Fold:
Amino acid sequence: MKKDIFLLGSTGSIGQTTLKIIQKDKKRFKVKLLTTNNNVEKIYKQALEYKVQTVVIFNKEKLKKNLKKFKKKKIKVYSNIIDALKTNKKKSFLTINGISGINGLEPSLNIIRHTENFAIANKESIICGWNFLQKELKKYKTNFIPLDSEHFSIWSLLKSENKNYIDKIYLTASGGPFLYKKLISIKNIKPIFALKHPNWKMGKKITIDSATMMNKIFEVIEASKIFGLNLKKFEILIHPKSYVHAIVHFKNGLTKILTHDTTMEIPITNVIYENKYDYNKKYYFNFNKLNGNNFIKPSKKNFPLLKLLNRNFKNTYFEVILVSINDLLVKKYLENKISYISLHIFMLKLLKKPILSKFFVLKPKNINDIKKMVNKTNQYVEKFLKYNVK
Structure:
């Protein structure tokens, strides 16, 4: 019997990689659900190629414009997960969430009840709504698997370990395209150069986050929540080769290191095949990548956003505001509306504004509270930029 898979964010890099893996083994797996926000053409082709009969297009205007095209091919199209799975009676074997940004939270909350295993690479959802996700996972007895390479690595290393014996967990960062440049020398660097990641092919937003180190900051916060460990247990190390993904040092003096090539195909395939897959030496252990391996402590002078890790993250509105500000600033930078250095300066300035900081001690009670805070934050940031960008 084929194993059913639901794929959230099928048109993004995680989604496309997942489909390529499934393509090789269609006898074992069946994609039952695809989702996208805006990329209608791509999801239409995916639905035809993988014979998927249920599609979600979150952008209602685009859904309306393209409804006839899908209907002709007898593909059911919905604008949300709840309606798409209303008549679903059987849990899928696996759901993979590769949606980018905080928009991935609501679909996650709505799909957990419909799946046996839930694998997620959407860090913003975990940062802003981990307590809500945990509640759903527990309620519906759904198994949780972190899909980001670093978190999947930590998860793999800690499977048979007692968390009380952990001394330190190191998450590695590539350092991005500007590792050996001083921030002041690239303050006006254009997005085209910031998007040239040395090791990974990723979406635009996450690539910019990699350059500023915001992506790694998010990953530390995410790991702290997922593994239930104090933020002080984590440290960031720059590892330019991106071969080592996680290092766990234990109080007994032992250290575990997990390595794999710079491709998301490895964690995704291991999730899909439950760690029982033979790569036929496609990604063999390459000791040359460990030889002469220099690990570097990141400098707050070149990566000033690292100062954010001095704060507390207790499931308050602070996490929602942080993610919202970053999302909007990165969007503006990619549109060439703000400079590269403004990504750093404006983030740190905005978090000090009383109109936002007054919410840092309050906690959202539900997904609607989070949505309202995202809108409130976006409105204020737009106003701030109007008066602070020349």
Remarks:
- The chain has a mean pLDDT of 94.
- The first strand starts at residue 3 and ends at 8.
